[in-house]
Specification:
By secondary structure, the chain is α/β, with parallel strands linked by helices. Helices cover 57% and strands 13% of the residues. The protein has two domains: 186 residues, P-loop containing nucleotide triphosphate hydrolases (Rossmann fold), CATH 3.40.50; 193 residues, P-loop containing nucleotide triphosphate hydrolases (Rossmann fold), CATH 3.40.50. It is elongated.
């Protein structure tokens, strides 16, 4: 996961930069200030207590902060990580954050501090006070808040500096320039941690349909070697010409082609959060190939799922597909269908045992039912695998 704490004094521009970082890196945004204002607006007990303190420019007690943070901090497969704005602000909160992230089997990637001189901060917040309507944007309160920052929050920088996770950023300049400095620092700091899914199953089990949906809904890159090979065949490329005789018979194309296609797709998506591999690997040799390809990225398979479907249902589905524009050459030939099913039993089932021996998260998911019913089961399995990994 990519977990970032955006640090800096009041008026440093954390809110503006947070929105840009949230969008670029697909992060869950947690702003203690925003959450507290929501509590205040709702008139909750926490909100009432917090309002008295905020109106005086003080820092809200950790007991309140913990309560509101715990409501928001969850493992979310749909985002890449968490962006904390305005938290932690004290040494105590540093340890609180460490504990919260530990419960999620993750940690803070970096703390980015926007450095802005006090006279510039005063100028910005007084200007903001003319339009914001916020009671804490007046000169006396601003001075108090800046002093509080110096007294209580600066030690946080030392805490993360000792861990090698604190990075000061010049907060004076254009929004784009500051954002550029932030992203450059993140890219130099973050060790990419992919979430990779292998989706297997008999011909007709719905791997293509479900794999595509799974990738789109979870911000992963869908890689189907079959789809890529058919694209090469349609374009009459050199790879396509080699693959066509195998594809026409419903057989496995040479591994050299799969390697080139998968490498190309990975290279095209350097910022990917992970990949869904549909129908690959289909043999033990291909399992070793995929492990090798992923090891070059310093990653591995996170989750291996087999869509379980009876042989009779597989045949029925392939027969129905033969009547549509999605039909494959082998869908029209019962002998080829039976050959592919036999190939799955002999060559692909051992792949499942291969990943089980590696303690890769594995699940058999019932592939019978509507597209929506199958996806719900698939998504639940993936969420469990994600929680186990992170």
């Amino acid at each position: 996961m990519l977990n970032i704490a955006l640090f800096g004094p009041p008026g440093a521009g954390k809110g503006t930069q947070s929105k840009l970082l949230q969008e670029k890196y697909n992060l869950t945004y947690i702003s203690t200030g925003d959450i507290l204002r929501e509590e205040i607006a709702s008139g909750t007990e926490i909100g009432k207590e917090a309002k008295k303190i905020i109106d005086k420019g003080g820092l809200v007690p950790d007991e309140i902060i913990v309560q509101i943070i715990e409501k928001k901090v969850t493992v979310n497969l749909e985002t890449r990580g968490i962006l904390f704005d305005g938290f932690p602000r004290t040494i105590v909160q540093c340890y609180i954050l460490e504990g919260l992230l530990l419960k999620m089997n993750t940690t803070l990637t970096c703390m980015l501090s926007l450095e802005v001189p006090n006279d510039e901060l005063m100028k910005r917040m007084l200007e903001r006070g003319k339009t914001s309507g916020r009671a804490d944007d007046n000169e006396d309160v601003i001075k108090f808040r800046l002093q509080e920052y110096e007294n209580k929050t600066k030690p946080v920088a030392e805490f993360y500096s000792e861990k090698g996770k604190y990075f000061p950023i010049n907060g004076v300049g254009s929004v784009d320039d500051i954002f550029g400095q932030l992203t450059k620092t993140i890219e130099n700091t973050f060790t990419h941690d992919y979430f990779n899914v292998v989706l297997l199953g008999k011909p007709g089990s719905g791997k293509g349909t479900q794999g595509d949906i799974l990738a789109k809904k979870n911000n992963l890159i869908y890689i189907s070697t079959g789809k890529l090979l058919r694209r090469e065949i349609a374009a009459n490329t050199a790879m396509g010409k080699i693959a066509k005789p195998f594809m026409d018979k419903g057989e496995i194309a040479p591994d050299e082609l799969a390697i080139k296609l998968i490498e190309r797709e990975i290279q095209k998506n350097p910022s990917a959060q992970g990949f869904v591999f549909k129908g690959f690997p289909r043999t033990i040799v291909q399992a070793y190939i995929l492990d090798g390809l992923l090891r070059r990225l310093d990653t591995s398979i996170s989750c291996m799922i087999n869509l379980r479907l009876s042989t009779l249902d597989s045949i029925k589905r392939l027969h129905e597909r033969s009547k549509t524009e999605r039909s494959r050459t082998y869908d029209h030939n019962m002998e080829m269908i039976l050959n592919r099913l036999d190939e799955y039993e002999k060559k692909t089932k051992p792949v499942i045992d291969y990943y089980k021996r590696q303690n890769t998260y594995f699940s058999d998911v019932d592939g019978a039912g509507t597209k929506e019913e199958v996806y719900d089961r698939l998504e639940e399995t993936v969420k469990k695998a994600y929680k186990k990994k992170y």
